[in-house]
Specification:
12 helices; about 75% helix
Amino acid sequence: MENTSEGTLITLFYLIFNIVSSIVIVLLNKWVYKYVGFPNLTLTFLHFVVTFVGLVLCQKCNVFKVKHVPLKDMVPLAFTFCGFVVFTNLSLQNNTVGTYQVAKVMTTPCIIIIQIFFYKKEFPLRVKLTLIPITLGVCMNFYYDIQFNVLGTVYATLGVVVTSVYQVLVSQKQHELQMNAMQLLYYQAPLSALILLLLVPVFEPVTTTIAIHWTAAVVGLVASSCITAFFVNLSIYWIIGNTSPLTYNMVGHMKFCLTVLGGVLLFQEPFHMNQGVGIILTVLGVTAYAHVKAGSALGRGNHHHHLGCTKKPSEIGLHFQSPP
């Protein structure tokens, strides 16, 4: 993008739009789970359907071009996509917003562990050291969370593991098939919706959804959740393509802190002072990690080794649970 005042205003608009929509989608989903009692899998299914419709419209408007690939290459992605969105949604449903946000950060260490043990990839000591404050901060938050519960912790852990596997697979497929994130999502969304369509009747009987008191407000909340999730991902795609990784990382930190604050204020979630210390440690660790990785990439003159970076193109689609 040209460095003009108009270009700067457009960039600023997308940054603000992404920050606001990313915070709104988390708080909106939490509200739908907590006060409406909307079933998790059904909401996720609706997100996938609306996202696919949105992607079709984007494709018609030449935002991206569809790349035709064998469906068998997309099936593993679709299953892991379902898994990470469902489990992170369950984490949001069963944890406080703050704990949910902090838990997601553990994806970074988890991806590195996967790469070390399964792909025999080596990481510099300085990269490994940045994981210490991240892990310590997350553990502190869980330990001092007054609303700590075992089920929420299990869902958060499963969400981190499956999300990490998904991000590794996405990175591989992007490189292997030479597809961008929206091209991948164009296949993932309908396939994942089909998978959930088969699972929803088993885990969430139709009577569960019918039993909800369907008012105009409830319909509006659910529709807003689906549409906002799509817009979050669309703005992420634009920002990644038109700003620097540093800008995106800083926006991610801002969203992280504001979302936690929003959870405390909107849902009156109890907040222990030591949780604040844990969050600060987590943010410092993530910032240090992003800085070290960026420095390493510049030194190599190659940005393709950013697997596990806190914010990256393969995060398109991460905000259905919400995302960063």
